[in-house]
Design goal:
heterodimer, A: 206 residues, mainly beta, B: 0% strand
Chain lengths: 206, 193
């Protein structure tokens, strides 16, 4: 046996250990919980006629809704939820703080053996956030935004083994833009944003 | 030639031939590493062993190939389960799940606010997987600590890939902005004063 092959074999084993799954995957009611990252930049002109920018990210939303430390934003069964200690702390969509809409314009599915699949989809995406639950009139909230743009969604599923399938989803957006409102600044302002997320977990396949 | 001398020469010749034969049959002892690999993939399946070991040493295929190579006893006697004809769709799904597990870990870390979590996130900026590096940049943003700005800028200065360089600099710029929460807190403070 060549030495190079022995070394390669050892490297493979070491690689496996280094990449040993540290699964933080969360599945609730047989649906994968996919953590989400929201970030936005609001632009305005201040009293000195200078263009200013303000950042807005997950922690701003979580703080505003009073979520416990260590909480995460995530999507689950089509809703935006706050996850704390691996449980749904609050459903922000039900509470009226966040709504989002995906319009599928093009998609494709590739099927593999034993239920394995790959699915990809692109379309237009809209997300609204209202800190005080008024998604209709942004100015009724302390902070709010309404942005839209394009999205890409990829979902894959492994071969089904003993009724289990590992499903992985990735979601990205690009060029989200729209309007924001901040009561401190007191105006409706232009905003650019990105929303991305993904999750993986083992689900039972009927 | 005297009989005594003849016998001595004959014995010396026999001893020499025996020594040569013994040396020829003796091979060097295998190294511990070789023994280990042989234990994993016994010599009864040479074709499979070669195929597994010849796989490229990149993290992605390794994490998929390795369980196959390590898959134990039946491997030796039955080649079929050792290296099944892996459906590419399934292979991708497995790899994606493994990368996602690392990204999930970053998502957990970004929700914290302790220095150890930030350090762990910043370490992943140098991960060998581009997807994990991108997730680490995002996690740095979401962590929201401005002490990460110099790290992002330093890394951008040494990053050849223009896309990744831009992402690092954009992240540094985003972190330098006042956050909505800070603006609200500042207003509240000024009202109280």
């Amino acid at each position: 046996m060549k030495t190079s092959k022995v070394i390669t074999g050892c490297a493979l084993a070491a690689g496996l250990m280094a990449f040993a799954p540290q699964s933080q995957a969360l599945v609730i009611d047989n649906s994968v919980v996919a953590p989400v990252n929201v970030k936005a930049t609001v632009t305005y002109v201040n009293g000195s006629s200078k263009v200013q920018k303000v950042s807005f990210s997950n922690k701003d939303i979580l703080k505003k809704v009073g979520a416990p430390k260590g909480s995460k934003l995530a999507t689950w069964e089509g809703d935006m939820v706050v996850i704390s200690d691996n449980l749904i702390w609050e459903d922000l969509t039900v509470a009226g703080n966040v709504s989002f809409d995906m319009v599928d314009l093009s998609d494709n599915t590739t099927l593999g053996k034993n239920g394995a699949f790959k699915y990809a989809e692109v379309g237009t995406y809209t997300i609204d956030y209202a800190s005080d639950g008024d998604l209709v009139d942004l100015t009724d909230n302390a902070e709010a935004f309404d942005v839209s743009g394009t999205y890409s969604l990829k979902v894959s599923g492994s071969a089904v083994k003993n009724g289990d399938q590992t499903q992985t989803g990735k979601f990205t957006t690009s060029n989200l833009s729209g309007e924001a409102y901040d009561s401190t600044i007191g105006q409706t302002l232009p905003v650019s944003a990105t929303v991305s997320g993904g999750g993986s977990g083992k689900v039972l396949v009927p | 030639m005297r009989p005594k001398i003849f016998i001595l020469v004959l014995l010396a010749g026999l001893a020499g031939i025996t020594g040569i034969v013994l040396l020829k049959h003796q091979s060097p002892p295998p190294t511990p590493a070789a023994q280990q690999v042989q234990a994993v993939a016994p010599p009864t399946t040479p074709a499979i062993k070669t195929e597994v070991l010849d796989a490229p040493v990149t993290p992605a295929p390794a994490s998929i190939a390795a369980p196959v190579a390590v898959a134990a006893p039946p491997v030796a006697t039955n080649p079929a389960p050792v290296l099944p004809v892996v459906d590419s769709v399934d292979t991708n799904a497995q790899h994606e799940a493994e990368v996602q597990a690392q990204i999930d870990k970053l998502q957990d870390l970004q929700a914290n606010d302790d220095p150890a979590s930030l350090k762990a996130i910043l370490t992943e900026l140098g991960n060998s997987d581009q997807e994990v590096r991108a997730a680490a940049v995002e996690a740095t943003i979401q962590f929201g600590d401005r002490s990460a700005i110099p790290v992002l800028k330093d890394l951008a200065a040494t990053t050849a890939d223009s896309g990744e360089k831009k992402a690092l600099l954009d992240a540094a710029e985003f972190l330098s902005l006042p956050s909505m929460t800070e603006i609200h807190a500042a207003k509240l403070q000024s009202q109280q004063q």
